[in-house]
Amino acid sequence: MHDNDTTYHIPVLLRESVDGLDIRPGGIYIDVTFGGGGHTREILRRMDTTCHLYSFDQDADAQANAADLADDARFTFVRSNFRYLKQWMRYYGEESVDGILADLGVSSHHFDDEQRGFSFRHDAPLDMRMNRQSAMSAMQVVNEYDEQQIADILYLYGELRQARRMAAAIVKARAKQSIKTTGALAEALSACLAHDREKKDLARVFQAIRIEVNHEMEALSEMLKGATDLLAEGGRLSVITYHSLEDRMVKNIIKAGNIEGKVESDFYGHKHTPLTAIGKPITPDANEIERNPRSRSAKLRIAERHEERQ
């Protein structure tokens, strides 16, 4: 699948995000979101034989896409959710690493695969699982969660003002017949969608349900905490976000060393802030947005681990 990796997922902010790792000889690096392998292959291209790269992905399609890298002694593919980053590094005997990259966007491949149910553009089974071995799919969320739970998900993860109305519409529709497809979900919500915002609001609905199905916020929180602990002094964190929820978490971990964004101090008043932001957030230029419209909302934040005062 290497020849088609750009059709699987066009890497966003490729040069800038890999530059942010400041790759050096002998370094240990991690790409926690392999996807189509674009960022991984660029990291490998810049590494010498003394470096090693671990790449994570829980999706079987991504694992197949990494098959051509199996003979590269510098590379290890880890079939796992990135929330277990710290545990896997312990398994491989890595006490610290020199750089971690995360591209948090859902790949074009997932949106374009009609059977995965990630997009309202295709009438497909309500699935949305990043890992097809997971027990819960979008169908369970839509048909089994109560009205309040659905409203909370749509409001918290989709930032939809009409979340309560949408939740009521879903519950009313499923009382007549189970909602089993993306088309049926869109139809159930049709009366709640303003004509000039229909696609935008539907995209937020699907985003919210996808986040719930895959426990994305919890996984991101665990990954960021693990990444902060794993980084060696001078190690770099390079993260690409696509919506305000995940960007806020990344911003907070860089600012305060925790997801809540509250800077903590010890008894002597020394602030516990293990990361330092490197420059301002980077966004795609007009050329990249034209080449890959889905990069429009992308934002890259880079930080460096520093030794804290004792």
Q: Care to describe what's here?
A:
The protein is an alpha/beta fold and 310 residues long. The protein has 14 helices and nine strands. The chain has helices at 5-8, 14-19, 38-46, 60-65, 85-91, 108-112, 138-144, 147-158, 163-176, 182-188, 198-213, 216-230, 244-256, 286-291, and strands spanning 28-31, 52-57, 75-79, 97-103, 231-241, 264-265, 271-272, 275-277, 299-305. A hairpin with a 5-residue loop joins strand 6 (264-265) and strand 7 (271-272).
Q: Determine the N-to-C terminus distance.
A: 49 Å
Question: Structural class given helices, strands, pairing?
Answer: alpha/beta
Stretches with pLDDT under 50, minimum 5 residues: 1-7
Q: How many strand elements?
A: 9
Helical residues, percent: 40-55%
Quick one: biggest sheet? 7 strands, mixed
Please write the string of helix (H) and strand (E) elements.
Answer: HHEHEHEHEHHHHHHHEHEEEHE
What strand line-up does the widest sheet have? 3-2-1-4-5-9-8
Percent of residues in β-strands: 15-25%
- Count of alpha and pi helical runs: 14
Shape: globular
Average per-residue pLDDT, rounded, comes to: 91
Q: Whole-number radius of gyration?
A: 20 Å
